[in-house]
Specification:
Immunoglobulin-like, binds fe (ii) ion, alpha+beta, six-stranded mixed beta sheet, Purple Acid Phosphatase, chain A, domain 2, seven-stranded antiparallel beta sheet
Length: 387
């Protein structure tokens, strides 16, 4: 009897050890950099691996009907050996839904030109519906989005606020900074908000991230773009969905670069100047000029006397003042504020979303509507801009 028990325990331990060694997808997949003809899928595996995405049309066929095209995580013709994977898929049709699944195959050894592979992990399509992504469509008549900011790692708050949004009718979600208090580790980022976001929407809904000042801090801060906007040239960017052209600006840190808190690691004055040069060209682009509505997101508002706020006011606002912007959506101050067009030398309205509210926005026809919903699910304010 005793011998049988010892055998069972040994087998269980061996099985547990083996299971632990097995490659797993530990975070994601989630969508990034969704465009009209492209999409990027990001996920994290438990060990160094090669990764790829299989894509199938959303045409009712079984995912297993045929071999689906594979898009590898690769750079300069070599498959990336990493735990962090991002795959950019191009050549897609605008406003079109596709089904996808992701794979990672463990690399057990890479010596000279010999590579050995271990097990493979993937998302499920057998017992579970495959994941879906939908490309953006500038011809779409309306757009709806939710906006969150300053969650500072509070997943319960994120879940509660998103719970008040009708996600079936929401095209995308905007994160406007300070989703964590410090970008110190993968664990902190994913347990802080991204695992929950993936579980609720980010595997199938586009998420557009405007970095806040807190994501600029910490040991992993310089790797921010490995996880968010990995296919974009910069983490400030522009995109069009339906009648709206969105510009996401990165306001960087709030204190001068030389502040003791930053230990000499920051060069945000230079970065904001470089960004202003990009912004001048962006607002002159046809994509921006022809959009019926123009929305700008920026974590730090151009209010108050802190260095970051003054930099936004001096470097970004003069360009935006001439660009026909309909509204700027910001955060950072942890309180609800609304400035009208013309206030503080800013030619367009500025909405500061608090850390306790979610913005629910719809733009349709000649109207932009924003509902501000608090943690109790109560609509505390609304804002309408008519053309
Ligand atoms: Fe902030």
């Amino acid at each position: 009897m005793k011998k049988t028990l010892v055998t069972i325990i040994c087998l269980a331990l061996a099985f547990a050890a083996q299971a632990q060694d097995r490659i797993e997808l530990i975070h994601g997949p989630y969508l990034q950099d969704i465009g009209t003809t492209e999409a990027t899928v990001v996920w994290i595996a438990s060990t160094n691996s090669v990764g790829w995405v299989e894509l199938a049309p959303d045409d009712g066929s079984h995912f297993y009907e045929t071999e689906r095209p594979k898009y590898f995580d690769s750079r300069n013709g070599i498959k990336t050996e990493s735990r962090v994977h991002s795959v950019k898929i191009t050549g897609l049709k605008p406003g079109t839904t596709y089904r996808y699944r992701v794979f990672s195959t463990e690399i057990t050894e890479h010596k000279a030109n010999f590579v050995s592979y271990g097990r493979t992990a993937s998302t499920r399509v057998f017992q579970k519906e495959p994941l879906r992504l939908t490309t953006l469509d500038p011809e779409k008549e309306s757009v709806s989005f939710a906006m969150l900011n300053d969650m500072h790692g509070d997943t319960l708050k994120l879940e509660k606020l998103i719970g008040y949004c009708d996600m079936a009718k929401t095209d995308m979600v905007l994160f406007v900074g300070d989703m964590v208090s410090i970008f110190n580790s993968e664990e902190q980022v994913f347990s802080g908000f991204m695992d929950k976001a993936t579980e609720i929407f980010a595997a199938e809904k586009p998420v557009f991230y405007t970095r806040g000042n807190h994501e600029t801090r910490g040991e992993l801060a310089y790797c921010f773009q490995d996880y968010f906007s990995p296919s974009k040239e910069h983490i400030y960017y522009m995109f069009r969905q339906g009648p709206v052209c969105f510009i996401a600006l990165d306001s960087g840190e709030d204190k001068p670069d030389s502040d003791i808190e930053y230990s000499g690691i920051n060069v945000y004055d230079e970065y904001r100047s470089e960004q202003a040069e990009w912004l001048k060209k962006a607002v002159q682009s046809e994509e921006f000029r022809t959009a019926p509505f123009k929305i700008v997101t920026c974590h730090v508002p151009a209010m108050g006397g802190w260095h970051g706020e003054k930099e936004v006011k001096e470097k970004f606002i003069p360009i935006l003042n001439e660009a026909g912007v309909d509204i700027m959506l910001t955060g950072h101050l942890h309180r609800r504020m609304h400035r009208n067009a013309g206030d503080d030398g800013v030619n367009f309205p500025v909405l500061v979303n608090s850390s306790e509210d979610v913005l629910q926005c719809t733009v349709s026809g000649q109207e932009l509507k924003i509902r501000i919903v608090d943690l109790q699910g109560k609509t505390v304010d609304t804002l309408t801009i008519k053309k």
